[in-house]
Amino acid sequence: MHNIYRPDLMKVVETRRQTPDVKSVKVRFLDEARAKEFSFRVGQFGIFSVFGYGESTFNICSSSNWKDYLEFCFRRVGCVTEALWSVEEGEVIGFRGPYGNAYPTEEWKGKNLIFLGGGIAMPPVRCAVWYALENRADYGNMTIVYGARTVADLVYVDELDEWAKHPNVRVVRCVDPGGETPDWKGEIGFVPTVFERAGVPAENSIVLVIGPPIMIKNTLPVLYRMGILPSAVYTSLENRMKCGVGKCGRCNVGSFYVCKEGPILTMDQLQRLPADY
Amino acid sequence: MSGTISRQALRELVSEWIGQGKRVAGPRQVKPGCVLYAPLESSAQLALEGFIRPANSVKEFVFPKHEELYGYRITGNGIELTEVEQPAGEQVLMAARPCDAASLPILDHVFNWDYKDELYNRRRQLTTVVTLACAAHDDACFCTSVGLGPAAERGSDAMLLELGGGEYEVRCLTDKGKALFDSRLPASERVASIPSGPEKRFDAEAVQSFVKEHFDSPFWPLQTLACLGCGACAYTCPTCHCFDIVDEGNIERGVRARNWDSCQFTMFTLHASGHNPRPNQPARQRQRIDHKFHVYPEKFGEILCTGCGNCARNCPVGMGVLRVLAEIDHAQHLPARPDESR
Amino acid sequence: MSERVEFEPKMVAFVCNWCTYLGADLAGTTRLEYPPNVRIIRLPCTGRIDFNLIIKAFEIGADSVLVSGCHPGDCHYTSGNYHARRRWILFRELLQTLGFDLERIHFTWISAAEGHKWQQVVKEITEKTRKLGPYTDLYQISGNSASPFPLPIRGGGSNTVPLPTWGGEGVGALRETCRRLLAEEKVKVVIGYGKRGPVFVTRPEDVEQLVWNSQCLTNLTVYLKRKEIRALGRPAIVVKGCDERALVVLEKESQIDRKEMRVIGVVCETMGQAKCATCDVHIPRFADEVIGEVDKHPALTGERWKSLEALLALPPAGRMAYWAREFERCVRCYACRQACPMCYCERCLVEKNRPTVIEPSPTAKGNFAWHILRAFHLAGRCVGCDECTRACPAGIDLRLLNLCLAKAAEEHFAYRAGMDPKAEPLIGTYSLQDKENFIR
What is the pLDDT of residues B137-163, one digit of tens each? Predict the structure, then answer.
């Protein structure tokens, strides 16, 4: 009997502490056959679990081109993430997925890509950035603006440097006013402000913006002023989930089941949803 | 196929089914004044009259309140997952009300939406539903407002209709029903009259457009003040299916299981960050009506409600969806319905 | 060839760090031998021992539990053991009603110098448990499946009957009082009974919604702590005598301020519920206005414990089988909790998952743990409105648990919740004279 709730067993191959309370984890299927046949599309999420503590939903933040492992990134904030924090390399956790929809990478072909990420919301942007870099010829200019509250809260900092090395890729990093260190060389300001200051050309662009609601709320007017339509602005909607397969009745925003029809949607789709998120 | 059966013969048949090892469940008086669908150990426990309907629903026989999904063992070498023993053998739901039987095909949609929930499907396949058409209703019943009625056939494999004098007309509606009664019914031309159901209390389509258009309306805070935020309505509802997944065990082994959950609880949509999209009871009540009368019909073409009235009867403060729906109806200034004056 | 394996009792001991733990340590350092069957769990003080730890020990397979701490007067934290003792007196009654085998639960005072006593106690308890055998009765449904005694759980049925309590006045007097209060803006909302359930009347002309009949059962005081209701402003609340007791408890616990509301007491002869047969609060005692009068002033009767005594007449295994059967039907809807005015925690302990204290699953052990928690957290606070019982969609007789603790409170401490606004709370206080005849 095929049990849709039964997870795959994954070996933890690497854990990395990104900030005082954020870790990224790379996992690999224990079952080699499964590892070979498994694939996902960039933007999808998985439900990762620590046996004895429970399941939790995270975006798969590795590029879908990478075959050796899956990666996810989490903040230590609740029962399951506390348990995940203590998981070491070599231990086994559970994974169900891939669930949800993916970034419409086909539709984005030929466009300039603008990525705006805030704090712990960087990982779902990160996988899209890597994917685009790996299929560089398909996409136009890339701009990445990433900010966090303080310098210590920035995740995947070393990768930001790598991205900037690619042609026609511009990386702007910033911290909230007051979050800078004396040797901080990046920008100071909230992501929407810094983005507007950066003077990125708007033509033929799509925008992926993921971050706390306040950041998104303040980014939209900037995009509007730049003439970028809501249908060209994408985000990933978070909501509390349990089953991930549309049955437990928890994640819906009106008729929109985040686990089935999301989590990725455009701003104009989002604006048509009731304020139930 | 149609036939007649006396109440006594029916009980004998039930005894036979129990004797054959079938799992039989039906209305049972667990104590004075309390009739619930429960497993029957003997046919004498089957309650056939003297109450409107059991206070719970039959969903627990295909969607248990607690269901182990799989087990896990934590060893020095890692994790071992173990299958949980699945129920075997036929299950008969005896004397279910039509509003309970109808809930099963409605639930089939969500449990098979792209991903097939075989735990549910398996129990469903093993189940034969024998309905008892309702001879009476009370003021909490509203099956007729959601497209059903006292002798609705949806979800039923065989229906019993009262002929009077302690006899029932039996209509076998599906192959399963036929197989269950297995030519034990003396053929008969007697046809029971279909009992009349409750009068329509509201227009379901009008409710659907109301919830779509009035998401931010003060209607919700005003009309849902009495709700205490328990799960009595959701858990006794034949169609509510929200669930939670938990790990339970010790450092060596445990199970991952699912339990019923209710959108009326505060923590249902609480994020780890502390943000709650539905931070108050009006928002949660709105979600309940929205899910049942707008979202589910939009997705699956059916209302997630069979009008059984359990929510209204079990609600400690007499609400259930019925009270809110009556208020919506009232707010729409539709032609006056009987009874539901404020 | 198989050897018959001797049963080795598994025992868990919850001991306080400062006395008993050191006493056990002393037994060790002075080479006193005692059976190795006891697993010691060290806590700072017996006052810290949550009763559900005792239940948890049984859940995970203990055959016996020992709880031990400093002698009264010697507590390292001054009074922790006094609080514990009071709690234990009440908790034992609850366990007895539930059918736990009290022969398997032991309480002692063992000081840091009493290594010998530790040795003796452990020896005795181990032997006793060995004779009792493994605790296989826990949560078992055994014997015949008929309920041992028929108890009415929902009174009144669904027919509404106007009640003969007015002595001349009618519901008109209630409506007029409320109309006046609203019109004069003395209150912003009247919380009262309407035709189909509680109503929240904010306009004088809407007082016609208010009714008074045999379906006026909800304890409306439950709304005083709900934020959506508080947002409406200064309330007037309609209470029966039984409901009013909840106001006394809530005010004692600093959850409400009587000065910030208007209490409209309604005289009630009976609502036809089980509680009404033995009621002595037909007339609300502390209301700002009282509507109605009644001729009879019945006295408190011992008949209140009748249904509980019928349960206690069963042997422990029979009691446990009764509750196991009842709790089998529990779906954890928490209607009992939500209907109770005294359950006002913003997050209930059952919703805690770091760590999980009470399993949320509706299994036998999850349900026992929940109902024990609910009942015991209401010890000395439950006013006997029976709303929890009426709210339960599975017909579980929760009032028996409440009666058990109310009886214990009266018999041991002459205490009735919600009767005297000046009385100190039951569990929050202790007396140096609390009886400890069950403590070794």
Answer: 998 999 999 999 999 999 999 999 999
